[in-house]
Design goal:
The protein has about 30 residues and is an all-alpha fold. About 85% of the residues lie in helices and about 0% in strands. It contains two helices and no strands. Helix 1 (about 1-10) packs antiparallel against helix 2.
């Protein structure tokens, strides 16, 4: 499910990139 949110962020792009980086950091933490 989390990966889906990540992919959606990629499609949105723009300001979502900031959130993407935050999500990516969470994934690396896991």
């Amino acid at each position: 499910m989390k990966y889906v949110a990540l992919l959606r962020g990629v499609n949105v792009g723009g300001s979502s990139k900031v959130e993407m980086r935050r999500l990516k950091g969470c994934f690396e933490g896991v």
